[in-house]
Amino acid sequence: MFPVIVHATDASVYDLEFTGSPAKKMRFKLISQDAGSKMTIRIKYPSAESRAIVKDGSIIEMNAWNETQRGYGAVMQTTCGENRYIGVTNILEFYITAGCELFIQPRDAIQTMVRMEWTMNEFFDNGGTTSFIDKVAGSLGIHASTIKVVGVYTGSVVVDYSIEPDKNLSQSASDLQAIKDKQTKAYATGNMSLGAPLLDVKVKITENKTKAPTNENGTAI
After folding, report:
1. Which of 80, 114, 202, 217 is least enclosed by beta carbons within 10 angstroms?
2. How does pLDDT run across 73-91, given as a tens digit for each residue?
3. Which architecture, in CATH terms, is 109-206?
4. Sheet holding 198-206, edge to edge
């Protein structure tokens, strides 16, 4: 634990920078005599990797994707745990209030980067992320809710996305390997049709190998 003194007032935003690699698992708690203290924290990571904000043992999903802004909706400082991921710059941004305790931990996920021969306007004019997710889900026979777009950026068009276990089917991290193999085969055989010629694909699996979050007494929650 590394306590830090901050001035947490309305609309406060703090950038948290690490001299080395950020820890995979972190715990944050804002302790203040002022019950109205609140702040937004931004952590820049060296790479795009699936991470979760956990509050009271449950994952707080990111703000909804905004096609107009071409990214996740801004943190409006409404509820402790509200968060979003900013692609390209790889910044995880979340909101915390006095007395609230949050955890950051890796997600079990298939991380994929696909580059397509498209312009950004063409990508979004042809359904954007909603259409992209539907096409990936249809090709792999998985539910669209398990696919999360991490970021969309130029080069021609690059989409970073993750596939997570389907909680409704009680899938575990081990089930991801079969999905990863199916996806690799679909890309290799040309059976993954995304609407534009593919230029490059990179895939890896990330796993939450950290211990369960604990409270101040070291008890699992």
Report:
1. 217
2. 999 999 999 999 988 788 9
3. 2-Layer Sandwich (3.30)
4. 147-154, 157-163, 109-116, 198-206
